[in-house]
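Thread amino acids onto this structure.
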């Protein structure tokens, strides 16, 4: 049973990685029109929950969500997107994920927040 549970946890993390890649594509589509990544969070903010550009939780399909999707940082020409496990779900404690405008990816195993210094980054392929 434990190996099946680990499989499920890993597959949910893979779904969050896929959602982040799709989120990054949405950011790129917006940039192609407006030449900026700024102002795409709620209330025209540069960080936080995405506004109308993309859903705010993953997986994208299904009723049960395991990750909050956020814009961690945005400037005119760069961004960092994050997927943070939702507290109280089976993914809690499995680590946050990030992807940047330069396709730099990280999984912060056992850290349910995104550190400022990228300490503990484990690369995943996007």
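Threaded sequence (126 positions):
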């Amino acid at each position: 049973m434990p190996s099946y549970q680990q499989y499920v946890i890993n597959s949910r993390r893979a779904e969050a990685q896929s959602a982040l890649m799709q989120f990054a594509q949405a950011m790129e589509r917006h940039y192609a029109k407006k030449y900026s990544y700024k102002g795409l969070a709620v209330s025209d903010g540069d960080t936080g929950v995405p506004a109308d550009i993309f859903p705010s939780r993953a997986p994208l399909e299904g009723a049960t969500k395991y990750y909050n999707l956020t814009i961690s940082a945005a400037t005119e020409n760069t961004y960092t997107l994050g997927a943070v496990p939702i507290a109280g779900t089976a993914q809690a404690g499995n680590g946050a994920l990030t992807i940047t405008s330069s396709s730099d990816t990280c999984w912060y195993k056992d850290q349910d927040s995104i550190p400022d210094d990228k300490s503990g980054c484990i690369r995943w392929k996007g």
